[in-house]
UniProtKB/TrEMBL annotation:
This is WCX domain-containing protein. InterPro entries: CBASS_pafABC_assoc_protein, WCX_dom. Residues 251-325 form the WCX domain. It comes from Pseudodesulfovibrio piezophilus (strain DSM 21447 / JCM 15486 / C1TLV30) (Desulfovibrio piezophilus). The lineage of its organism: Bacteria, Pseudomonadati, Thermodesulfobacteriota, Desulfovibrionia, Desulfovibrionales. Pfam families: WCX. It comes from the Bacteria.
Amino acid sequence: MPPKKNQHAKPTQKAVTLFCQLMYTGKRHYLIDLARELDCSKQTIIRMMEDIDRSYSVRVEKGKEGKRTWYQIQTPRNRPKVALSEDEISHLLLCKEMVRHLLPQGLSKEVDETIHKTVALLPALDNRAQAFESLAGAILKGSIDYTPQEAIITTILNAIAGKDVCEIKYKALGQKEEKLHYFAPLKIKSYREALYVTGWKVDIRAKEAEPIYEMHLPIHRFTAAEPVRKKHSIQQQEKPHYFGFPECESFRVKVRLTPEAGRYVKERRWSSDQVVKDLDDGRYELEFTAQSETELLSWVLSFGANIEVLMPSHLRGKVLNELERTTNIYSGQEI
């Protein structure tokens, strides 16, 4: 039999976590997502749902959206009584401090005010100063000020929640003219020091918007975003974690690293299906899946002589060409 997932977590802990997710969010939770988040099987989630339905005096609704099963707790008649500890408020503050640089000024202020309101949930108000002590921050490289895009971000967030199609104007890097798209936004994602919105370009001529192709767009290049009177039913599909921001079809990569670089690489996750092999001479081999040749080339070059690309073969050629161009620049030769 295969080993159980997350053997250190007690079943009762998972059941309480599951109940809290259902009770306090009030939204639909999909079976496949819950199994992944709680690190257990779908059958375990189903059993816990049955226990919650019998034991917590709440009504658990169940349904299907396409092939995906969802669960949701009906809103209780009486508001549940809850309290937050100083540590819990401090953890909220920690999350905010780590992403503050990505938020427009107005949205950042709104988050601050919301967290400050949580002081009302403290059992002892004398401890509020301790709860709001800043314990974290972010070290930035090439950050972007999103304050000019605040209205656009708000429009996109509302469109995601309402499954609305937006008419967007977008100017790609290096292009003089902006392009207009009918776009169904599904999720805003952070990547390094930037915000992106993932979604689909859609055809709005039908009664319900129909997807054409997927798009991943940096928000700071939007010049306008307005909702149109058109809904969509496109679902966000969870995908494996691969190296780089989506740019092309995924492909396998194998590299060999020196002991120094290998130890650094081994500490990190580069794709969900990566394989790290310790070699007899102290070096390491890393095999993983990438979805951006541009980022992969930049990543390989950042290691200098501490890395060798073993596959794919065409990437070896690109590395060599880039090194030759760099050598020509520093030797004073024309490119």
